[in-house]
Specification:
Keywords: Membrane, Transmembrane, Transmembrane helix. The chain has 55 residues and is an all-alpha fold. The protein is built from two helices and no strands. It has a domain of 31 residues. 93% of the residues lie in helices and 0% in strands. The chain is flat, with a radius of gyration of 17 Å.
Length: 55
């Protein structure tokens, strides 16, 4: 991917996040809460797998 396109996509994503948090804070909070819950589930599953692997 060309460097200019990657920078453009990155800054567009950052601008969207700022806009989303400024004008839809409830939706943004729910989205980040969902992302956090998903990450916690992934790491919990990984921890369970490693625990069972070692026993």
């Amino acid at each position: 991917m060309p460097e200019l396109l990657r920078k453009l996509l990155f800054w567009t994503f950052i601008a969207f996040l700022i806009f989303f948090m400024a004008f839809r804070p409830d939706g943004a909070a729910a989205m980040f809460k969902g992302i956090g819950a998903g990450l916690m589930a992934i790491f919990q599953g990984l921890g369970d797998f490693m625990t069972r692997l070692m026993t």
